[in-house]
Amino acid sequence: MLTIFNRCQLTVADNNQDLFAIRQALSGAGIPCKVKVDEQFNNSHNRGAGIAALAGEKYRYIIYIKKQDYERAKACISR
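Structure (tokenized):
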């Protein structure tokens, strides 16, 4: 079980395709993950959101894994 005390951030995906590919790779390696959706670009008060907002990206996906799986997960997604 992933808790705030035993997890670490693996990476951030900027779109659904990247998120799907990362989750598939982790699942294939048997590494559980948790995804937090960051709605930073969907906030109307954030006028300086940058290139991603102009390109239509509204969300970022922060992927967390267990700290003990970090090295294996990093190797898994870097292939």
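The mean pLDDT is 85. The chain has three helices and three strands.
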